[in-house]
Design brief:
594 residues; mainly beta; eight-stranded antiparallel beta barrel; five-stranded mixed beta sheet; 6 helices; 36 strands; 5% helix; 38% strand; globular
Length: 594
Amino acid sequence: MRKYIFVLLTALAPMSALAYMLNRVSVHDPSIVWEPVSQTYYIFGSHRAAAKTADLMSWSAFQAPWATASSNNAANSAAFTTPQVTKIKKGGVEYDFNFNAFNWSKRGNAGYNVDGNMWAPDVIWNKVLNKWCMYLSVNGDNWYSSIILLTADNIEGPYLYQAPVVMSGFHTGSAYKDSDLELVIGTQSSLPERYAVGNRWGNRYPNCIDPCVFYDEQGKLWMSYGSWSGGIWMLELDENTGLRDYDVEYPLTGSGDGITIDPYFGKKIAGGYYVSGEASYIEYIGGYYYLFVTYGGLAAGGVANEYNNGGYQMRVFRSENPDGPYTDSRNNSAVFTSYLLNFGAKENDNNRGVNIFGAYTSWGSTARGNLGERSQGHNSIIAAEDGRTYLVYHTRFQNWGEAHQVRVHQVFQSKNGWLVAAPFEYTGEQVTSADIATTQQIATDRIAGKYKLLIHRYKLDHTKKEIAEPTDIELKSDGTIAGATTGTWKIEEGTSYVTLKIGNTYYHGVMVEQTLESTDTKVPAFTAVAANTGETAWGYQTEATTGIVGVHFDDNDQLSTVNCQLSTYDLQGRRVNSNSKGIIIRNGKKYIAK
């Protein structure tokens, strides 16, 4: 006898085919953008990796070509040598400036190879230029890096080098004469002392990599950029050119390594003093600008070096202004005032930044064993046209070496204004951001049951590949929590907002339906953040204590037996009434258990 058993509340989907298709790609440092004509999402990443999808689930990889004046498929070494824009305006006066980004990047290392140093592009549509604008890091050794603008008529390219936006590395001698420093601060007889720091550059000033370009709510164009070296900085761009706005001035603020506003580099918004942190990404969501910064080392971990191996983890700050100040849920500033180790088992910076999630395993059907996720980061996030918000990142895995893949999770805003990520990959769920505040996605009498609980805590020991694992709890119908931890839970009727007290800590978030990836199984799940700790809690139901708890079909696909309690549920898992034992819909047929 063929038999299917589902220990779940929801109606049953056919097992012959999934309602979604996950086709994954490897794009390091994925930056997401929406192309409205083709109704397609694109991600662009380091080393010319790129991919596209119509549904954020099934991706196809491609490579956008570079252009030069004579070629639409130029070599990397030729792509960044000849800018199309050689005239810069400041104060209405036009100045000549011709910047060879390729030569700049190799001046710190005679054996330089540009092929492995095209990092973390960010693509945005500029409605004034009527062009797709790619902001690309051309990384060089010894901080000889630049962020350049390339444009294309088609989002898939070819992209043509226009001009530099900002550059770093003029820390000694006359190198600054080949940069735009004098266009910004005026003619200098020698390198200003504050820049003449040699190999101490990284304590004070940025390496010009990892751009994030965005329009604020008033239509002003901004770029955040930088990394461990000197922190994350912010410049205003010219909406008409896509380049630096040379008419915006930044008054020198601070001194020594504590400079927070620099006339050339702009305003520091995070990091500093060689504290870890890279891949800034900013998105406006529900009244706040949210800043993502990835702390730690990008490797999979397992090597006894806390400082540069493992610990990659996304941290979140917010501000009401695009250029900050950015703070976390405990009002910690994103800017550091001295060096502190800010990731790993020896983290000593008061766990700065909300930990939206980190390394985890034994979760659902996919993130298990060797494929437990770790080293997640360099993300982008998009408040999409479909009314949902998506977090896109690359992740390595527990025992899969340095191989990596892209993952997408839906993101919600908790009632107290912090972001929480859905505890499973996006698989076509239909709930929108607006639905969270206005509809109750999971009926109250569906919530009670046994759950897996995962706390995304700080201070995992990545040198030993330590990874968060779930425990077993039960959300009881009387609003209490039992099992591995005790506490209380409460859903705000008519909304999807949930509050959980786990131990002595309150978590605020949402309760929604989630799909256990690689199956069509739907379960109630929660994601919530503790504002007073910065840690996130995930949970998903493994066994219901109300509703349908067991379903059997025979070899003829006929309903054999149903075990139900209390209520009847429709295809979406919503309670219909309490008069019948249960309704099951399978292969388009309705079965009623009495």
